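Thread: "does anyone have the structure for this chain?"

Original post by V.I.:
We have the sequence but no experimental structure in hand. Need at least a predicted one for the grant figures.
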Amino acid sequence: MSTPVKPKQATRADVARLAGVSESTVSYALTGVRPIGEQTRERIFAAMEELGYVPNAMAQALAGKKSGILALLFPVGERGFNETDFEYVQAANEAVSEEGYQLLLWPNAVEDIDSLTKIVNQGLVEGVLLMEVRADDPRVDVLEQAGMPFCLIGRTDHSDNLTYVDADFSQWGPMAIRHLGDLGHKHIGFIGIGDELVAAGYGPAVRTESGLTEEARRAGINMHMKHMPATIRSGRAAMTELLEEHPEVTAVIGFNEPAMIGALEVIATAGFEIPRDMSIMSLGLSEIAANLTVPAQSTIGVEGKDLGRMAGQYLVARLNGDTKSVLQHLSAPHFVDRGSTASPSR
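Reply from O.Q.:
Generated one for you, tokens below.
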């Protein structure tokens, strides 16, 4: 069976031949760099339509037209990109696509301000969605100075005048501690993201851990904290250390999606049964991610797809000229019981 041949994509040269002009004249029609006659312009655009030719974003930007391109800034190298993150991005993409925009992932580091300055000043991007937000995020200053419409998925410590959607992470830790405390757990392990992200002011981690440790102190519960890279291997190491250093631990709270997979492996290898011998709860996992493990994990979090979609809608509202409305949303958490927590048996 032969492989079907894809139709050739029309080029600028094809447009020039059909319109009876030079390629440079086609470029002038697209960019407006030099004036051309109205009849010539009409022939060129008629040829483009007939051939299905789509000018590139650079040409559209030079012509002063909208590119239809939005950037989503997500520093993938810091903790990877997991199933739960994908739900935010997919929902945001669907929201902006419905309004005729294309969303491109820009994975550079938070500190790569030079590259961010270039991308917003080149005029190829109309707006920005910003993820993995720091308490004091230098990217926000760049976007504000450039006059670039943007929406945060997250928030800084000074977000009163910013457009954002976020989860109320300050409630996640206390909710988890109260649930496990009510079951009778007195020694709880915690597997979170790496120390470097916490030190950098990564909002979700800072707000979650602050509420968690304060609630544990108030309830007289001993917390045993492990901050690890976002890998399965590091999760194995963290759980092994918890079992060796604190055998009294009867429950583990996770805020590190891949690391918790490794932790579950170690628990099973040690002969512990969940939840009889060890209770497990994860923070911020999507429905899909929580059910990928065996056993499925009880969770505290928000609907990432709802926040992602709302962020896309907020950004489009700003692009459409709405500069006066207060577009901010803070989502309260909910607990989903999937049977991975119980009263301690030891």
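V.I.: this helps a lot. The chain has three domains: 11-44, 69-168+304-334, 169-302.
O.Q.: and Residues 203-219 form the longest helix (17 residues).
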